[in-house]
Queue: 3 jobs
Job 1
Amino acid sequence: MDKKIIVITGASGTGKTTISKYLQDTYHIPSVITHTTRLPRTGEKNGIDYYFETKDSFSNNHYLEKVEYSGNWYGSSEESLNRTWEQYDAASIVVDTKGAVSYKEKYGKNAVVIFLEVDLETVTQRLENRGDDKARLQTRINSNEFQRDLKIPEELRGKSYVIVNNNIKITKETVAKILVNEKIK
Ligand SMILES: Nc1ncnc2c1ncn2[C@@H]1O[C@H](COP(=O)(O)OP(=O)(O)OP(=O)(O)O)[C@@H](O)[C@H]1O
Ligand SMILES: Nc1nc2c(ncn2[C@@H]2O[C@H](COP(=O)(O)O)[C@@H](O)[C@H]2O)c(=O)[nH]1
């Protein structure tokens, strides 16, 4: 069987991590942990949510792709994905749309891209409810990256599953159908 990487993308707060946890908890599809220079949020743990890096340690790693998002660096490594594929046929990864384009270009049909869409007002409310620091949240919402990721990029149109994540139950049901369609489960 072909190995698959389920690339979950969309703007911050659209529910990417929620879906990656659903894949882990319900289908035992592991998430590839990425690296960031961002400080941990309350409750986030090194090696579980991210590998939290300093600017120096971040620059020492080798990445398949890396991006700057709202003032912090994020990157994912081919080694981590290959290690996961040694044990599992499918894994998921949570990245911004620029990262998703990189995965689609590199892995073609083996990269199953799911783009999550939520309107700006709703996503802002969800990020406030999540407890994101107010000042940092405003900076993030105003960032070019966040604004860009509210809509699917041209490069992913027609090559991705688009889910409007207004209702988590319906979103999970749609993801379950995608797994069947892609012969992952
Ligand atoms: N359909 C939904 N309805 C209501 N709340 C939701 C829904 N989907 C996700 N959420 C909530 O919205 C918040 C943001 O979700 P999540 O952290 O999964 O987003 P994200 O895209 O991973 O964000 P980031 O990129 O900033 O890490 C969480 O508190 C989550 O529980
Ligand atoms: N291209 C990549 N994007 C990544 C990676 N790891 C996370 N992300 C995305 O960054 C933003 C901000 O994340 P947050 O945890 O600070 O809210 C979000 O869209 C993530 O999906 C990565 O390795 N590469």
Note: The chain has two domains: 1-30+89-185, 33-87.
Job 2
Amino acid sequence: MRKLAIIGASGYGKVVADIARRNGYKEIVFLDDDDSIHECGGYPVIGKSTESGMIDADVIIGIGNAGVRKQIQESIPDEKLVTLIHPDAVVAEDVVVGKGSVVMAGAVINPGVRIGKGCIINTCSSVDHDCEVGDYVHIAVGSHLCGTVSVGDGTWIGAGATVSNNVSICSACMIGAGAVVVKNIVEAGSYVGLPAKKIK
Ligand SMILES: CC(=O)SCCNC(=O)CCNC(=O)[C@H](O)C(C)(C)COP(=O)(O)OP(=O)(O)OC[C@H]1O[C@@H](n2cnc3c(N)ncnc32)[C@H](O)[C@@H]1OP(=O)(O)O
């Protein structure tokens, strides 16, 4: 199997490397702009984030910040980008997962779901039937989208948060850890608590 270059030698990047290894990548390298980092998860950092075009390798972004992830992903030709799904994630057959997205261990994605590009579907989260997840969304560890939820581009669903069925959340929102979203959110911002309310 081909080589994989992961941009971003971070904690998240380390998890991405583990998923890549389980998907059969034999050679994994990192690219990062921090000169002081030489390895990540036991894999070498061999250059800067802008150098993926010079390497004959598949590419994925290992950066948690949605804005940075988007900026870097959109500078890379689509044919170099891959999608990674942990072998212990449960993903229904008709689910569409966009380029550059990563689905982590224990995640469950049920039928009729569409996940955009550059998303993180993190450990033990669930995305239930017919959800529409935009681009560069992060469904953080242990959070749950009930059925027919829509999440706009760049939104972060915090760890352990729950979004009730048939609810829409617009782009550029931060849903706090443990929040419960029971009504549509139509204005960008940070929302916390039960029921989730805007804080700024
Ligand atoms: C593998 C991984 O690690 S994946 C990463 C998972 N991590 C997460 O999901 C983290 C999600 N982030 C949060 O929950 C954050 O607290 C945010 C984004 C909601 C708010 O962060 P900030 O904008 O920095 O807000 P700040 O910390 O200043 O808090 C503002 C107020 O909201 C409260 N608040 C913050 N987060 C929450 C929350 N999740 N639930 C309830 N109240 C909260 C604070 O106590 C504070 O209240 P106060 O003004 O009465 O003191």
Note: The longest strand covers residues 43-47.
Job 3
Amino acid sequence: MTQPLLDPFDRAIRYLRVSVTDRCDFRCVYCMSENMQFLPKKDLLTLEELDRLCSTFIGLGVEKLRITGGEPLVRRDIMTFFRSMTRHLDSGALKELTVTTNGSQLAKYAQDLADAGVKRINVSLDTLDEKKFADITRWGRLPQVLKGIDAAQAAGLRVKLNCVALKGFNEDELFDIQSWCAERDIDLTFIEVMPMGDIGNEDRLGQYWSLRDLRGELEKNFTVTDLAERSGGPARYVRLEETGQKIGFITPLSHNFCESCNRVRITCTGEIYTCLGQEGHSDLRAPLRASDDDAHLEAAIRRAIGLKPKGHDFDYSRQSVDGRVSRHMSHTGG
Ligand SMILES: Nc1nc2c(ncn2[C@@H]2O[C@H](COP(=O)(O)OP(=O)(O)OP(=O)(O)O)[C@@H](O)[C@H]2O)c(=O)[nH]1
Ligand SMILES: C[S@@+](CC[C@H](N)C(=O)[O-])C[C@H]1O[C@@H](n2cnc3c(N)ncnc32)[C@H](O)[C@@H]1O
Ligand code: SF4
Ligand code: SF4
């Protein structure tokens, strides 16, 4: 029997997040600069290499696989990869195959995702206003995303909306977004903006809207009850008693979920980041390419997991660069 992946703090690693591309058809202001330089295609893991890497992790006890990016659905032939993972769902080794997407390609791929065994997807959407959407994503078009969400629901996929809370940007839309989701039976999670990337002159500290304040706003209209349940992810949930709606809050700066952290991340070039909020990483592409022997790759994975830190190092209170992670969110896929 293979030993499960345990980190130095005895946390079992069951959740793998894989960024399949650094490219994106949007340029969200908190994520990328307008003139992002992307990696040469030859540096990316091939779909076959991604398959081998993910399959090795699944053999080592990973039960949940989330595909992210950049925008995962702009990678050519990505459905081939999703379909190749279906065998692990069929065998029961993989419990969940899922994706985090900006929604732009969903109208095209929703049914294929459902056919591959995907049940739930997360769609990132910060505003329901067309003009504001164009501003925040720079290149995105809202109607295309809304069409994608409709297609996902029509294909039977459960949709969760990820909404980054931004002061002075979507504060005024809080109740519109909440009721829009309630009407469509779409789950909703708010995310605090994180200090990542060196993104031009964007002022992430000025955009910071604490979810504590956002919750305070909700309390003006609803009775908000804390729920004890956890999804195995960083979100904490509340219920709005008047509508019965469940809303998630992800406050990456609090350490409240680090102690039960179950995840690691792979970039599209095969680096493993054992913590979203730390720079430390190891290379898995070299061992992947060096030999067909999976034992070699497994040993490299175990060595990397052996370096997983206890928690993150984000800090808004430090004004200097050492309080931020300089890598872009699109590099590790959030
Ligand atoms: N600090 C921190 N933030 C995380 C972590 N995982 C996810 N997040 C944040 O949560 C955001 C949403 O993540 P998603 O890709 O939707 O996945 P999720 O919320 O973990 O997924 P489910 O719980 O399966 O729905 C990410 O973009 C990050 O901002 C984590 O391990 N640490
Ligand atoms: C990097 S994107 C990758 C997947 C896909 N392109 C999407 O947007 O859903 C994953 C998530 O990271 C979030 N994100 C990006 N930059 C962020 C930041 N600086 N702070 C908080 N969340 C961020 C996005 O809102 C999105 O929900
Ligand atoms: S948040 Fe997602 S959609 Fe927006 S620029 Fe980053 S990778 Fe692209
Ligand atoms: S910040 Fe790091 S340790 Fe904490 S939950 Fe996220 S990945 Fe895990």
Note: Confidence is low (pLDDT under 50) at residues 316-323.
